[in-house]
């Protein structure tokens, strides 16, 4: 695991990969791999350089659908083979500077040896800074800039936006191909209406901020992790239409072979299969029969 002290002094002479890196998906990991390879060759530090929060949280909070929480993103970056992760504080004052000021503030005090970026990178006020700006600044200050074409899958670039669209449609296995790992839901278990147990299947209600639920409505299978233990799980995403008005849970999970209480626990679920859309059943009996059949499917296939 890399150093997570986020000390900007670590940029001095380092070979950096620079980006937001939501999802830390395959194209991100390729880019970071390029930086790590050059760092090893030059015997310099390899640094993943990012922001502490996703810029979209500041500028597009309304339509935000992140692939990862910021904590998970920083942890995943630390796990890519770099020596350190450096996160700039993403404030409007810092990120909203004209490109020239941004580069001076970001890199002026501790000039990196090289910066690896995606060729479409934008930064600074109104995202007006481009790779060409970085190259000009780099030429003056002794910082190489390597702009990479994004890794492609099935003829088009892998991007966080593309993965978000797949997830919104419930296409978890296509999303997994691009992410390089299953999509993960992270949340805390909160009390629900207390009716699940009577229906024959307890469900842990997960509190997940809408911005952190990129997955579309539907019923899924996956692996839930709690306190280092893994359980197979049947998961519903979206407010139950049968109980709409009486529940606001956006994610519920039944953990197979778990007994006990989960209230307050941090739960993560790696979602591996789409089972079916959410259904507005006419009767609760029909709902119970269908969910029990979904749970049986998970028992058999996972
Ligand atoms: C695997 C699974 C699938 C579900 N599918 C549906 C569904 O298709 N339609 C629906 O209205 N609710 C669905 N639910 C939600 C259940 O109705 C809900 O878990 C139940 O009402 C218990 O709620 P409570 O925990 O708040 O008491 C599903 C729940 C799970 C765990
Ligand atoms: N196998 C299980 N899967 C999920 N939650 C379980 C399981 N066994 C026990 N629980 C506990 O039961 C709670 C859910 O019970 P439930 O009757 O559905 O009420 P609630 O309305 O609080 O969701 C969970 O939050 C968890 O603490």
Automatic annotation (TrEMBL):
<dbReference type="GO" id="GO:0003919">
    <property type="term" value="F:FMN adenylyltransferase activity"/>
</dbReference>
<dbReference type="InterPro" id="IPR015865">
    <property type="entry name" value="Riboflavin_kinase_bac/euk"/>
</dbReference>
<keyword id="KW-0067">ATP-binding</keyword>
<comment type="pathway">
    <text>Cofactor biosynthesis; FAD biosynthesis; FAD from FMN: step 1/1.</text>
</comment>
<keyword id="KW-0274">FAD</keyword>
<keyword id="KW-0288">FMN</keyword>
<dbReference type="InterPro" id="IPR023465">
    <property type="entry name" value="Riboflavin_kinase_dom_sf"/>
</dbReference>
<dbReference type="GO" id="GO:0006747">
    <property type="term" value="P:FAD biosynthetic process"/>
</dbReference>
<dbReference type="Pfam" id="PF06574">
    <property type="entry name" value="FAD_syn"/>
</dbReference>
<dbReference type="InterPro" id="IPR002606">
    <property type="entry name" value="Riboflavin_kinase_bac"/>
</dbReference>
<keyword id="KW-0548">Nucleotidyltransferase</keyword>
<dbReference type="GO" id="GO:0005524">
    <property type="term" value="F:ATP binding"/>
</dbReference>
<dbReference type="GO" id="GO:0009398">
    <property type="term" value="P:FMN biosynthetic process"/>
</dbReference>
<dbReference type="InterPro" id="IPR015864">
    <property type="entry name" value="FAD_synthase"/>
</dbReference>
<keyword id="KW-0808">Transferase</keyword>
<comment type="similarity">
    <text>Belongs to the ribF family.</text>
</comment>
<feature type="domain" description="Riboflavin kinase">
    <location>
        <begin position="178"/>
        <end position="299"/>
    </location>
</feature>
<keyword id="KW-0547">Nucleotide-binding</keyword>
<protein>
    <recommendedName>
        <fullName>Riboflavin biosynthesis protein</fullName>
        <ecNumber>2.7.1.26</ecNumber>
        <ecNumber>2.7.7.2</ecNumber>
    </recommendedName>
</protein>
<keyword id="KW-0511">Multifunctional enzyme</keyword>
<dbReference type="InterPro" id="IPR023468">
    <property type="entry name" value="Riboflavin_kinase"/>
</dbReference>
<keyword id="KW-0418">Kinase</keyword>
<dbReference type="Pfam" id="PF01687">
    <property type="entry name" value="Flavokinase"/>
</dbReference>
<dbReference type="InterPro" id="IPR014729">
    <property type="entry name" value="Rossmann-like_a/b/a_fold"/>
</dbReference>
<comment type="pathway">
    <text>Cofactor biosynthesis; FMN biosynthesis; FMN from riboflavin (ATP route): step 1/1.</text>
</comment>
<keyword id="KW-0285">Flavoprotein</keyword>
<dbReference type="GO" id="GO:0009231">
    <property type="term" value="P:riboflavin biosynthetic process"/>
</dbReference>
<dbReference type="GO" id="GO:0008531">
    <property type="term" value="F:riboflavin kinase activity"/>
</dbReference>
